[in-house]
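Re: the 114-residue chain
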Amino acid sequence: MSSSPTHTDQHIESHAPTLGAYLTGFVLALILTIIPFSLVATGWLPPVATLIGVALAGVAQILVHLRFFLHLDMSDEQRWNTIFAAFTTVILFVLVGGTLWLFYSLKIRMMIGH
């Protein structure tokens, strides 16, 4: 037998999820759910500010889920998964933004003759 380490001898430190991380993620997700619900239910802010608050809480909640429940970070083990998630997000923004832009343009063009 050779003295070089085999694949089973190598110890790779993993990012095992802990109960504390799950509880932190749960509490943050709960708070980020209560905030937009209360903004809409109480009507304290004008509609535009409420919409911005709900959107910001939604984006923050996505980030909390990615970090605490899907365990995506920039560690060596997760770097490619994180890059793929970021690329998918960019593509979705381009598709959704382009669709909204197209619909708005069509709406304006249809109103010219009226």
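The chain has a mean pLDDT of 86.
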